[in-house]
Amino acid sequence: MTMIAFREALNQAMSEEMERDSNVFIMGEEVAQYQGAYKVSQGMLQKFGEKRVIDTPITEAGFAGLGIGAAMIGLRPIVEMMTWNFAILAFDQLFNNAAKIRYMSGGQFKVPIVVRGPSGAAHALGAQHSQSFESMLAHIPGLIVIAPSTPADGKGLLKSAIRDDNPVMFMESEMMYGQKGEVPDGEYVTPIGVGDVKREGKDVTIIAWSKMIHVALAAAEQLANEGVETEVIDPRTIRPLDETMILDSVKKTNRCVIVEEAWPFASTGKEIASRIYTKAFDFLDAPIEHVNGADVPMPYAHNLEKLMLPSIPRVVDAVKKVLYR
Amino acid sequence: MATVLSMKEPKEIKKLRWKDLGLSHSQLVDFYKRMLLIRRFEERAAQEYGKSKIGGFCHLYIGQEAVGVGAIEALRDDDYIFSAYRDHGHALARGMDPKSIMAELFGKFTGCSKGMGGSMHMFDVTRNFMGGYGIVGGHIPLAAGTAFGSKYLGKDSVTVCFFGEAAANQGVFHETLNLAALWKLPVVFICENNRYGMGTAVERAHAVWDIYQKASAYDMARGWFDGMDVIESYRAVKEAVDHARKSNEPTLLEARTYRFRGHSMSDPIHGHYRTKEEVEEQKKSDPIPRFAEELLHAGIVTQAAIDEMEAEIKDVVNEAVDFADRSPEPPPEFLYENVYV
Ligand SMILES: Cc1ncc(C[n+]2csc(CCOP(=O)(O)OP(=O)(O)O)c2C)c(N)n1
């Protein structure tokens, strides 16, 4: 095991896969000469050269679509979106082309592309730069959606994503790029669609992913001081979802809180809750509680931004509510 | 064929100075003062950013002041303005209260967007300042929309839209140019070509480096001007705006300019994409001292008057910071206001 930052883990994943397979390349805004807007691709231009580490103009729809076309004939593009907020411009390409070409062609083509970048709020970036789109992406059949929470998961899942023959949407976090964690030495991959128990407990289950895992773990720590044993589980992949892990945990604890940064309406959390209600209804001792970003665009003002986002106290309160405390 | 404006070809540009443009001395002094205000305001904003009074992305306009000031001086009060995220300069040039802009940067309720927008999203409905926008190129069609609206409503307001050269690669830029040309909309697109889209030089991102030439695909009037010269900026924009008002025809103008600071507060001034020497060389054409010299030389102002303006602007900026500091944050319940009407 080695302690490395999230951005470095992602860099290792991409570099290792590029060494393994010459059809893998990365393109995006500022990925090459500038060494990455958030330094995720640092050093890759020097290592792999201009043919495989490519700066694009600010043309998200164009280069996403170009990547999809290249993937149709066997290349394995990694398309970096400076943030997912800008990827909205490419949603037509992702939704109408990447997600559907396999199906529309009756299985003749596959689109092994990875689209990756930071998602969600950072700090005071305002309404247009602070959005979480995993629920929206996961709504589209044909897309795989991954949102890891640790450097180790990030590395293993990104390697799987690059090797996967489906279009994979990979959501990172600006706030987590500097976060360090233990990463296994040597070659490993983390399977897509398999979740991970981040903390074991018997009293209540918190389901979270990406940045929110860290809010959930901090809340669990605080609850431990009050004698509550919280289980924190991380699906890691939003679609396909590790339903088995979720149902097993809820059947054990009988209480569940779902924490997500995204807006509450038609969210991933609601999808998870629906599956629990349908398949483990009799095991629940309380209705599921949701902690979401407030149902508003992100305000700039610091005090309101803090109110908008899920916080440790809000998660603690939600846990107490399902425990009837 | 699109109407040929005098700025259509670079070599045709005539160096008209103020006399030919009918500008009064007090107008010229005002040009200077506005540029200086923007410069000093943003220098202070950078300091306040360093103290964490301002958060998030903060894109300074330093170096480009002549474009915004010259262009906006050529507008009427009932004309519309759209900006991108590098919008403080445009807001100040439009005469928005420095206090309300600083308060917005501080995320205060007295800000021009009530603290909800921040650096990238300054709005002022009373001045037809239609906002700053954060998605590169995303606001360009909105400008065609207000131009469409003016025409529809039988008004002769013109819309001006500022954006960077990198935005001119986005699909929506081309879609909008086509619509504006096809439907003859009174809009002037002002591309502020500061040579870099973040860390990417024009030459590395554009197949055609003369941005204004992109309008030729739509048979649209076009031209470029020296964006480090406030008079040139005024002249070119005035001509395009007058043309739009008279004939409902759009123009694409390219302002050749340069930003002296990093792309945003988190980007160093020089580094992976440009050298210190290049920046220093460019600073020789700093629009503010350049214009001061011209005014002094022509005897329009004295050095004493210029010093006085400095002092006056210093007070204005101090007041703006004090005001922002003292202002309240938006109340918690405001989080849920204005999601819908
Ligand atoms: C659609 C989109 N992609 C990427 C970004 C990130 N970004 C913000 S500004 C910028 C550079 C834009 O350069 P330019 O249009 O030339 O304007 P300038 O910043 O030089 O004023 C980039 C890449 C964004 N805000 N929106």
Q: What can you tell me about this protein's structure?
A:
The complex is a heterodimer of chains A (325) and B (341). By secondary structure, chain A is an alpha/beta fold. Chain A contains 13 helices and 14 strands. The mean pLDDT of chain A is 98. By secondary structure, chain B is an alpha/beta fold. Chain B has a single domain (20-324), classed as Rossmann fold, CATH 3.40.50. Chain B contains twelve helices and eight strands. Chain B has helices spanning 18-21, 25-50, 65-73, 88-93, 98-105, 140-152, 171-182, 202-205, 230-247, 276-283, 287-297, 303-326; strands at residues 80-83, 129-132, 159-164, 187-193, 196-197, 200-201, 221-226, 251-256. In chain B, the strands form two sheets. Chain B has a six-stranded parallel beta sheet with strand order 2-1-3-4-8-7, sandwiched between helices. Chain B has a two-stranded antiparallel ribbon with strand order 5-6. The longest helix of chain B has 26 residues, at 25-50. Chain B starts with 17 loop residues before the first helix and ends in a 15-residue tail after the last helix. Chain A binds chain B through residues 29-30, 33-35, 37, 55-59, 61-62, 85-86, 88-89, 122-129, 294-297, 299-304, 307-308, and chain B through 55-57, 104, 107-109, 113, 115-121, 133-138, 166-167, 169-172, 197-200, 204-206, 272-273, 329-330, 332, 334-336, 339. The structure holds thiamine diphosphate. Thiamine diphosphate sits between chains B (86, 134-136, 163-167, 194, 196-198, 263) and A (29, 58, 60, 82, 86, 89).
